[in-house]
Design brief:
It comes from Duganella callida. InterPro entries: Arg_MeTrfase, Methyltransf_25, SAM-dependent_MTases_sf. Residues 48-137 form the Methyltransferase domain. Keywords: Methyltransferase, Transferase. By secondary structure, the protein is α+β, with helices and mostly antiparallel strands. It has two domains: 4-117, Rossmann fold (3-Layer(aba) Sandwich); 154-293, Hnrnp arginine n-methyltransferase1 (Distorted Sandwich). It contains seven helices and 17 strands. The strands form four sheets. Strands 6, 9, 10, 11, 13, 14 and 15 form a seven-stranded antiparallel sheet that branches. A hairpin with a 4-residue loop joins β13 and β14. The longest helix has 16 residues, at 128-143. The radius of gyration is 22 Å and the shape is elongated. The N and C termini lie far apart (81 Å). The relative contact order is 0.14. The model is unreliable at 6-13 and 298-304 (pLDDT under 50).
Amino acid sequence: MLNEREIESCYLGQFIPVHYHHNMLMDQNRMHGFKSAIDYAVKPGARVLELGGGTGVLSWFAAAKASKVYCVEFNPDMVREARKFLAVNPHGDKVEVVHADAFEYLPPEPVDVVICEMIHVGMLREKQVEVIESFKRRYAERFGGPLPVFLPEAVIMAVQPLHQEYDFEGFYAPIVQFQENTVIYPGTVEMARPAVYSIIDFNQPNELAYAWQGKFVVEKNGSINAMRFVTKNILAVVQERSTTIDWLNHYMALPLATPVQVREGDVVQVSFQYRAGGSIPSLQAALKAEVLYEAALQPIPACA
């Protein structure tokens, strides 16, 4: 019999199918970014904890330098998968795959780095923020300070008004769309520049609820019928070079319940609220846009 948290986990995505994790292995941008960040953050002989280990690949990256890695995974299918893969890879013996709930698990000793890749656009669905905040409280109670380094270290979230095409071979269907950030989609028109609505620093205490209201100056005539959500993960801050190692999630375009007709120069107000780890429909239900100020009508130039 599943308990309440397990039921929610199944619904929100913690028990995602094994093949989804295989797709993540094939995502070169994700893999390269995390490998580079882990190589930088994990020093020789370090002790590392991964919360939500999936296939175990990020723990394996850490094992190249670490003396010990604890890889915590809640899904029993993925526990078996991770143990199978780690058994056939060098340094895999340094990774202990622990079948446990990341909300409850603490390592038997202090660790230097904590990896947590429960990342979804907008920090939705997966419990990244809540898991890390819970871990920080419990870790401090048992081991005191300082806290480990977290990977990712921070997240920047932004939103942008769009006109999104919803015609699928003549079938009109306003659906949630996930789009690669390196691809230009002809059916997607950016109607204004993006605005940052939240910055999460995992080294600091973080709230679990987001409420935002912001204004955009429209750059094109037309209609705004969707909002793009952008999530940039700062995997590691490379202080020696004053730079960062980043990973940008796929964009998420959410249709508006009521499209807004706009002209260039109009000021549109957008508002929404949701909880970290919540469902996409919960954000979509709260998403609103309206014209706050109309652009001044420009006189039509007289014919020469």
